[in-house]
Amino acid sequence: MRKMKKVSFTVNTTEEFLSERKISFGDIKKETDYLGKIFGFKYTDMFPTELTSASIDLLFYCGKILRAIENCSGFRKHVRQYNVKEIRAHLFTAIVAGYLLKRGYEVELEPDMGRKDGPHPDLKIEKKDIVVFVECKTSDISNYYRKTEKKQIADLIYEEVKTCDQIDIFFSGEANLDHLKNLFNEHGTIKEIYGFHQLGRDGKESKISLGEEIEIIVIQMPAIIGAEEDHINGGVLGYMEDNSSGVRSIGFSFMMGGRSIGVWDVVDYENKLKDKRETSQKQLVNKYPNIVFIDGSDVVGDPSLHKEYIENEWLTEELSNCSGVVLFHQYQMPGMKDFGEKVDVYQNRHTKYEINLDDLMMKSET
The whole model's pTM is what? Predict the structure, then answer.
């Protein structure tokens, strides 16, 4: 007799949230039923039973990704691999599978390689006479954010610069409190920030450069109403991407006494790429083209350095089994019904098994 487990849910959200998403409580129940069917007893390990707006978004996000690939060979084997600590990595494999499925490939998840030792790639894709093995990689970059150090910098700005304006500090390298203090003293930066505020340019953006190491952006804001203790304090992590260079700075935007102070720096991502190269090398299948997909949402720092490392250190004659590397970032902007994709393709000119990656990335006409 099949074992059953009864799960009770509570929902804590707003009518405004449901209206924006165009969903009902019935839709939420359908989503929990679907994911419960997929994950069985593991459901309560994977997802909360006290549903907030954020966790409801997570349910629909996961459901959309998994529905797209549920008819693929190996789907059940794939979902058995899921655990709460690595759900993001497993979902990235599912995202890549769905992306390739839309491009006309037959996709097999967790392909059976016929042996316990040896390579175990995440995907096997086929179209006509083409067979390709795919390895999918994500990175944990939480240690790069360095909240404690950046909060110290935000505290310095909060104490030294008494203005209501939004201030964002961008370091060209790693954020350093002592270095910022020295530059502040050398450049008379505090007076310059006050000068921008006195210009009376509401909402306007002004920039201060402290050599090549630090750039400060000041956005004039209206006067803060109420006492400091009346306002919520906290920090939101994320990244900021330069529109011209593509450099991604990571850090925090701190809310302090009604003010916003952001601290951002550019980290060296090479060690992460090196780790992905070494671990993916173990999963390369001989006598076939192999492609490594890297979650582009994890890739921070300077893209020109990423390109240099991938082309000169990864896609070499020594690793000729690897036909190419794809930096793949799936996103969904507010108001977008479907996912968008940003794809950067790097082909190994030394590969033993040639495959046109540009053709691979093109959407199938069938």
Answer: 0.87
Contact 275, 258 (CB under 8 A): no
pLDDT at residue 1 tops 60:
no
Q: Which run of H or of E encompasses 36?
A: helix 25-39
Instruction: Tell me whether residue 162 is exposed, middle or buried, using C-beta atoms within 10 angstroms of its C-beta: 0 to 12, 13 to 18, 19 or more.
Output: exposed
The residue to which tokens 């199938």 are assigned: 364
3 state SS of 150: helix
Taking alpha carbons only, the member of 88, 84, 73 closest to residue 137 is 88
pLDDT at 336: 62
**Residue 14: CB atoms within 10 Å:** 9
Distance CA 257, CA 163 (A): 11
Look-up of token digits 């799960």: 7
pLDDT at 365: 45
Chain centroid, CA 220 distance in Å: 30
Residue 89 in tokens: 């990595």
Whether 293 shows a pLDDT value over 70: the answer reads yes
CA angle 125-129-131, nearest 5°?
30
In this structure, what DSSP letter does residue 73 have? B
For β-strands 322-331 and 340-347, DSSP reports them as antiparallel
Sheet of 214-219, strands arranged across? 205-210, 214-219, 166-171, 259-265, 248-256, 234-241
As given in the structure block, the two tokens for residue 55 are 């966790």
Q: Which residue has the tokens 């490594």?
A: 292
What whole-number distance in Å separates Cα of residue 65 and Cα of residue 94? Answer: 7
- Give the pLDDT of residue 100: 94
Candidate from 78-92, 236-250, 269-283, 342-356 with smallest mean pLDDT:
342-356
How confident is the model over 25-54, as a mean pLDDT? 92
- Quick one: tokens of 52? 């907030």
pLDDT single digits (tens) 213-253? 889 888 888 878 877 777 888 999 999 999 899 999 999 99
